[in-house]
């Protein structure tokens, strides 16, 4: 389970204040902005008939989301995760066993009566994954067993707090659960931190702070002092050894265990959790999870919950605001726009678009019927690459490439341009050309 609550920054670290200040300079960017930009750029929208907190994704938004999801799936496959699919519904008993029913029901949709049974829209993926783990007997040789899913979950947010993609009732979560031995927990948490670092680099975002989220007073948390102590010590060690600055915060833990939360701040200074790593001794106990050890006896695994980008909705909202709609090329809905100077170059332009598509690049043709070259370039200002084809380029099979940041390159062979762009996109680079920083 991943906590995706928004909180105002309280006692903020110097780093956090710096980020807030920097973002505030951009004037009123933010929540409103991601909603406004999302609508202007036709990424997503909502309709009262579908309901509050239930946005739909338009083709360009769906393209960004798909690129993001594929990045995550690929990174997870490389890190030894296997993907599963599990249903968004489950019987009430499933959540009674996991503890959600008693600790978390305020955030859950009311159960539905179905043929004498009660089913609920799930508030998290963990219970399904625990059940999948125990669907057959497991050996210590299979551990750490890393189970990942980009799956739906639901939260009964009050209508007053809903907005854009940041507070939604239907959430697509980048989630994973690692079932492992106690000895393996620290390494797994460390590699999850490293996956987060790499993802943020590719996405061009930076955390405002790392937070060690601990339980607070009140009955929100499962009562097992020794378990809390052990998992807190493990996470503290991981953070200390990582060299990352972090702050401990009481009252921010999951009900079943402490967490490392990676926080980001939007333009209005609102802080939220994007990524998280959690250690859980509780649910393995509740679901009676076991593995057969080298000694032939049954042992209890530990569950590490982790999310690299949190909910897809919140991640995309943050990316829209962070980049003002000018996504890194690998995420951009249209990566390359082909601009023939006149109708005479239309055949070569259409052919270039076809070559881009064959090469896996998202390209579009904008011909003279859409206006002057200058007007077309302005319209495509968020597209990372603009390939201009004039009479000379058409004859030579060259393109005059303009980059989104205003740089103009000398005419280059079309094949070379496409290869270089493909390489940058394939490596999830945030710079547009050969290591130069985007202006
Ligand atoms: Zn979980």
Automatic annotation (TrEMBL):
<dbReference type="InterPro" id="IPR033728">
    <property type="entry name" value="ThrRS_core"/>
</dbReference>
<keyword id="KW-0479">Metal-binding</keyword>
<dbReference type="InterPro" id="IPR004154">
    <property type="entry name" value="Anticodon-bd"/>
</dbReference>
<dbReference type="GO" id="GO:0004829">
    <property type="term" value="F:threonine-tRNA ligase activity"/>
</dbReference>
<keyword id="KW-0963">Cytoplasm</keyword>
<keyword id="KW-0436">Ligase</keyword>
<dbReference type="InterPro" id="IPR002314">
    <property type="entry name" value="aa-tRNA-synt_IIb"/>
</dbReference>
<keyword id="KW-0547">Nucleotide-binding</keyword>
<dbReference type="InterPro" id="IPR036621">
    <property type="entry name" value="Anticodon-bd_dom_sf"/>
</dbReference>
<keyword id="KW-0648">Protein biosynthesis</keyword>
<dbReference type="Pfam" id="PF03129">
    <property type="entry name" value="HGTP_anticodon"/>
</dbReference>
<comment type="similarity">
    <text>Belongs to the class-II aminoacyl-tRNA synthetase family.</text>
</comment>
<dbReference type="Pfam" id="PF00587">
    <property type="entry name" value="tRNA-synt_2b"/>
</dbReference>
<feature type="domain" description="Aminoacyl-transfer RNA synthetases class-II family profile">
    <location>
        <begin position="59"/>
        <end position="328"/>
    </location>
</feature>
<keyword id="KW-0067">ATP-binding</keyword>
<keyword id="KW-0030">Aminoacyl-tRNA synthetase</keyword>
<keyword id="KW-0862">Zinc</keyword>
<dbReference type="InterPro" id="IPR045864">
    <property type="entry name" value="aa-tRNA-synth_II/BPL/LPL"/>
</dbReference>
<dbReference type="InterPro" id="IPR006195">
    <property type="entry name" value="aa-tRNA-synth_II"/>
</dbReference>
<protein>
    <recommendedName>
        <fullName>Threonine--tRNA ligase</fullName>
        <ecNumber>6.1.1.3</ecNumber>
    </recommendedName>
</protein>
<dbReference type="InterPro" id="IPR002320">
    <property type="entry name" value="Thr-tRNA-ligase_IIa"/>
</dbReference>
